[in-house]
Amino acid sequence: MTGTVQTQNVDWDAAYTLDTCGQACPQPLLAMRRALGELPAGTLLRVLATDPGSWRDFHSYAELSRRPLLRAEQRGGVFSYWIKRDD
């Protein structure tokens, strides 16, 4: 991935949350793409997922789309991904 992502001063808790827990691949990624298309520009989106394959899917999407993941983490079997709608 190219470029630098500035994550200082990001209010992670202010993100719009999309819960895709329990959905299997590729549903979490498709739901994220749909949500990004509906949210206003500048909105920070947090996606929750339980599918282990989502880790690979979200990172691949970020690299191929040049829309960087601002943050990604796993806690207790739940994956969280933060991505921002720029356009």
Strand order of the largest sheet: 1-2-4-3
Counted up, domains total 1
State the distance separating the first and last CA atoms.
19 Å
Percent range for β-strand residues: 25-35%
Q: What would CATH call the architecture?
A: 2-Layer Sandwich
CATH-defined superfamily: TusA-like domain
- The global form is globular
Give the proportion of residues in helices.
25-40%
Largest sheet: 4 strands, mixed
- Rg of Cα set: 12 Å
N-to-C series of helices and strands: EHEHEE
Any idea of the CATH topology?
Answer: Translation Initiation Factor IF3
Mean pLDDT: 88
Using the coordinates above, name the CATH class: Alpha Beta
Tell how many strands the DSSP assignment holds.
4
Stretches where pLDDT falls below 50 for ≥5 residues?
1-5
**Helix segment count?**
2
> Structural class, from helix and strand content?
alpha+beta
Pfam family, one: TusA
EC number: 2.8.1.-
Protein name: tRNA 2-thiouridine synthesizing protein A
GO molecular function, one term: transferase activity
List the helices and strands and how they pair.
Blueprint: E1 16-19, H1 27-38, E2 44-49, H2 54-65, E3 69-75, E4 78-84
Parallel strand pairs: 1-2
Antiparallel strand pairs: 2-4, 3-4
Describe the structure in your own words.
This protein has a single domain (14-84), classed as TusA-like domain (Translation Initiation Factor IF3, 2-Layer Sandwich). Mean pLDDT is 88; it is low at 1-5. The protein has helices at 27-38, 54-65; strands at residues 16-19, 44-49, 69-75, 78-84. It has 87 residues and is an alpha+beta fold. It is built from two helices and four strands.
